[in-house]
Amino acid sequence: MPKHLDPAWEAVRRSLREEVTEFVFHAYVSPLHPVALQRETLYLSAPGHIRTWVQERYLPLISETVRRHVAGAGVVEVVAEDWAPAASLEEAPEETRPSGGGALNPRYEFDQFVICDGNRLAHAAALAVAENPGQAYNPLFIYGRPGLGKTHLLHAIGNYARRYGSGLSVRYVTVEEFTNEFVRAARRGDTVAFKERFRGADVLLVDDIQFLGDKVRTKEEFFHTFNALYEAGRQLVITSDRPPSEMEQLEARLAERFEWGLVADLDPPDYRARLAILEKRVSLDALADVSTDTLSAIAERVTSSVRALEGALIRVVAYASLRGDPTSRRHAEQVLGRLYPAPEARESPVEQIQSTTAASFGLTREELLSPDRRPRVALARQVAMFLARELTEESLPALGREFAGRNHSTILYAHRRVSDRLAKDAETQATVKALTNRLGHNNHDRQA
Q1: How far apart are CA 152 and CA 447, in angstroms?
Q2: Is the full-model pTM beyond 0.70?
Q3: Main-chain phi, psi angles of 201, to 5 degrees
Q4: 349-447 has which fold?
Q5: Mean pLDDT of the residues in the chain
Q6: C-alpha to C-alpha distance for 128 and 106, rounded to whole angstroms
């Protein structure tokens, strides 16, 4: 550690100790050591087994604390323990040089991104942009609430373009970093160099554009940066927590430009995707003795975001490690009980259709699903199958499984029979209409 950084770094450590738990401090903060301060960037070395977690989870907090206590430090980068500062900035490799924004995280690759229905479009668009910058979707605007993978896709694009782009210049920057760089350049009277750094990029990746809203001068500079890159056929990828149309403080001319290319959203992952995300994280981080049952318990309770999922996994693993026990479903439920109460048992949409239809015909749901072939039961079953096909997005095989393991051809047959009856039978028309209205009202209540 450079001696002149000792007092400032101790102040950083004291401040961080008040901000995080003792476990987090000893596991993730204590092993960090400053190795250099170059051109407003403080380089912190970290052991390999925690470096990624520090970058992904604690870098914003560390950066903010460093800016308060370390004079001249505006950016923090986490590097390997064998990293050595270059003799001069010009000799530093691109990945460790503060050239208009933060470094790309090498762990964020496309093959580490778990694809599900909620992110399929955004992932496909990001890959297309990485393979053909400036040709596929320009700009690409990705939005979604925090923790769903926007930053992961940005870094994946950057890593792919840098690796396979034959020397393409890639810049990743948060809006906060863009603003700080611009303000410093304006104070130094060196905006020409600032503009060259950003407007000379072949691929510009901008994170959290929503924070641009109230920064008038930065907004103007970004507008001209956007125009310069777009007119030169260079790729822009932008992320936000909301679509351009809902960014109230954004000027209309910028919101309009953000919609010139493709706007893709990210939705929270479903249960299967959440479980796959946890399994991939366990594999990537070589976490031993984490059972599928434990991961299932986490996936069932934590539904809001990928970031929350991974945070919950850390808590469960840390809890078991501190107790010297293997992880288990019981540990997961104990650790997550207060933060993530057990979800209420609710009928699935298909189960609700079955129950409502059965009641309409004076039957129980069990009777409707039984092999009973009496005309009234058979008709109720066929109406339920018809409504399930019409009102849900389940596949035919999935619907067959929901109806006591029947073949998908049975669902198709029932759908055709009810469709035929609707064309000529007023009573069937009234029944189906009443059930559709009731189910639509129930679904509305559930979503309210």
Answers
A1: 29
A2: no
A3: -75, 140
A4: Chromosomal Replication Initiator Protein Dnaa; Chain: A; (1.10.1750)
A5: 84
A6: 19
